Amino acid sequence: MKVPSNIISENLYTIGKEFVFANSYKDYQGYYYEISDKFFAGREFNPNAPRLLKLNSSEVDPLRLKPQTSTYANLKRTRISTNKIPSIPLELTTGIKYLAKQINLVPIRIIFTTEKTYREANRYPGFIFTAVNFEPEFGFLITEENRKAIPEIDIFLSEFLNFL
User: 87 lies in a domain?
Assistant: First the structure.
């Protein structure tokens, strides 16, 4: 099949650190071509050529480029959210407090967040959420469900209260 020359740029070359393979995120060095704002390995059009992603494009999941988070992203076959979720200051009033833990992050990051963010948890696949009751007289009422969601919750909340 011959592709019209006005929609394809062939015989381009990269020395590396510009593209990664779409399926493996391994760095690509060599000839490539561009068609319809998409990049493929090889000098000229080949319908079976592997797709390339430009490193600075929005299609590249930056966390798949880091060894610490790439295994999770590959196994999950999903983009890891790089969205920042809103962290709020804790009000020491009676009620439910919402916590979020960012997974696959060292050191561990746990924050207080909003009810809205908690309810939209499916928008943040890189986080685990839980809700804890708080009574100023008794402190946090942690359940087994909270501990299953965020095993470090006891330590985090006790250190948080000691800090206050």
Answer: no
* Residues 111 and 131: beta-carbon distance below 8 Å: no
pLDDT tens track for 60-82: 777 677 665 555 555 555 554 45
- On whether residue 66 sits in a domain, the answer given is no
Number of domains, the chain: 2
Average pLDDT along the chain: 83
- Residue at 123 is within a domain: yes
Q: To 5 degrees, how large is the angle CA 42–CA 48–CA 53?
A: 60
Cα dihedral 123, 62, 59, 72 in deg (nearest 10): -60
CB 164 within 8 A of CB 157: no
Which long-range contacts (C-beta less than 8 Å, at least 24 apart) are formed by 132-138?
132/96, 132/97, 132/99, 132/157, 133/95, 133/96, 133/97, 134/92, 134/93, 134/94, 134/95, 134/96, 134/97, 135/94, 136/92, 136/93, 136/94
| Boundary (domain end) residue, out of 17, 45, 60 | 60
What residue numbers bound the domain in which 22 lies? 8-60
Please report, for residues 81, 99, 142, the alpha-carbon distance to residue 152 in angstroms, rounded to integers and kept in the order given. 21, 12, 11
Residue 86 lies in a domain: no
Instruction: Clarify whether residues 105 and 152 are in a common domain.
Output: yes
